[in-house]
């Protein structure tokens, strides 16, 4: 018996196929994923608009005396708390010279998309392709994210995409612990100002935005109900996008998490009607 393509089941199956294709799976009887991003070297025909990506933001940098790590974090909390909109937050982070992360990165990639969207995704940091191009979410992992968004019924153009760390560390290394501490107030304020209903958090330190101190292994693949400035947010935690793209073992838990996020989004839509 066939499945109506316009039914909930049909749309879920289409989303699942798109998700598997983004992961490199193209044959139902082949147990080995194929990396279509390596096989195809054709340039993308789609160039996402860097709406809030401030590579050349008109912000004056003031170089002050070096601060201790706890002083840097305290200053980060002060700057983040004082931001009343996303533009001010981006400028405050870009001009935060005491953090020091921007000195060795080519681009400052804050976010792109629709602020106020029901769905926000926060990846750990830009990848190698983003660092080369200066365009946020432009690497091979972006196609995976687009498929994941489609799985919960949202197009990329209707979502809001951001980074926990807007600079790529040299060699793609994880930010130092004191950098993570200083970035956390900005990430939390970012979420509060974006006001999503559903939040997808990727990467080992992105969940710091939840205010949790547990090991990432205890947080991943889980759902959390949070409140940011009085707004309720359903947050879903997963490994970073490159890890999901490369690991066959992560396909099933990632899909299960996405279905949970989709159910949460449908519930929010029903309550808004």
From TrEMBL:
InterPro entries from the UniProt entry: UDG_Type-4/5 (IPR051536), Uracil-DNA_glycosylase-like (IPR005122), Uracil-DNA_glycosylase-like_sf (IPR036895)
Residue ranges of domain Uracil-DNA glycosylase-like in the record: 110-259
Gene Ontology molecular function, alphabetical: 4 iron, 4 sulfur cluster binding; deaminated base DNA N-glycosylase activity; metal ion binding
Domain of life: Bacteria
Region (Disordered): 34-57
Keywords annotated in UniProt: 4Fe-4S, DNA damage, DNA repair, Hydrolase, Iron, Iron-sulfur, Metal-binding
PANTHER family: TYPE-4 URACIL-DNA GLYCOSYLASE, TYPE-5 URACIL-DNA GLYCOSYLASE
Name of the protein this chain belongs to: Uracil-DNA glycosylase-like domain-containing protein
Organism annotation: Methylocystis bryophila
């Amino acid at each position: 018996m066939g499945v109506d393509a316009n039914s909930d089941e049909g749309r879920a199956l289409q989303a699942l196929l798109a998700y598997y294709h983004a992961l490199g799976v193209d044959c139902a009887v082949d147990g080995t994923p194929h990396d279509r991003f390596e096989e195809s070297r054709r340039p993308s025909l789609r160039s996402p608009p860097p709406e809030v990506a401030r590579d050349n933001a008109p912000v004056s940098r003031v170089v002050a005396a070096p601060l201790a790590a706890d002083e840097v974090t305290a200053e980060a909390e002060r700057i983040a708390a004082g931001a009343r909109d996303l533009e001010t937050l981006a400028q405050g982070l870009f001009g935060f010279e005491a953090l020091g992360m921007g000195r060795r990165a080519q681009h400052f990639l804050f976010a792109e998309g629709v602020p106020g969207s029901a769905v926000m995704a926060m990846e750990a940091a830009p990848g190698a392709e983003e660092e080369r191009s200066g365009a946020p979410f432009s690497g091979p992992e972006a196609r995976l994210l687009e498929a994941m968004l489609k799985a919960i019924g949202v197009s990329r153009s209707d979502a809001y995409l951001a980074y926990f760390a807007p600079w790529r560390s040299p060699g793609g290394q994880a930010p130092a612990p004191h950098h993570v501490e200083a970035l956390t107030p900005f990430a939390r304020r970012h979420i509060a100002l974006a006001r999503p209903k559903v939040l997808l958090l990727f990467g080992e330190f992105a969940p710091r935005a939840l205010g949790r101190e547990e090991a990432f292994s205890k947080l991943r693949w889980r759902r959390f109900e949070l409140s940011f400035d009085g707004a309720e947010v359903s947050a879903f935690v997963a490994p970073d996008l490159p890890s999901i793209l490369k690991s066959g073992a992560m396909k099933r838990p990632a899909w299960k998490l996405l279905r949970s996020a989709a159910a949460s989004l449908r519930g929010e839509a029903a309550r808004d009607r």
